[in-house]
Amino acid sequence: MQFSIDWLGYTPFAYMRPFLRDPGHFIANVQARQTGKTFNGMAKLLWYGFRYPGSLILVTAPSSTR
User: I need a surface site. Which of 11, 20, 29, 43 has the fewest CB within 10 A?
Assistant: First the structure.
């Protein structure tokens, strides 16, 4: 969380702090629309990439093509 404040210039809301502090390798984050899921998820991945140089980070999403 301190990374978000110091490096990205924003303070995460209280409901996002458990997600940012979770040390798990696989995290499911289910929240309402427009609550900052993508922004905070990318902040966490950016922190992880700086913390562990050379790591491989994969982001998946469902396809919307029909």
Answer: 11
Alpha-carbon span 60 to 20, nearest angstrom: 19
Domain-embedded: residue 40: yes
Reading phi first (left if > 0) and then psi (alpha if -120 to 50, else beta), residue 19 is in alpha
pTM for the whole structure = 0.76
Q: Which SS3 state, helix, strand or coil, does residue 22 take?
A: coil
**65 inside domain:** no
Total tally of structural domains belonging to the chain? 1
Is 8 part of any domain? yes
Averaged pLDDT of the chain: 87
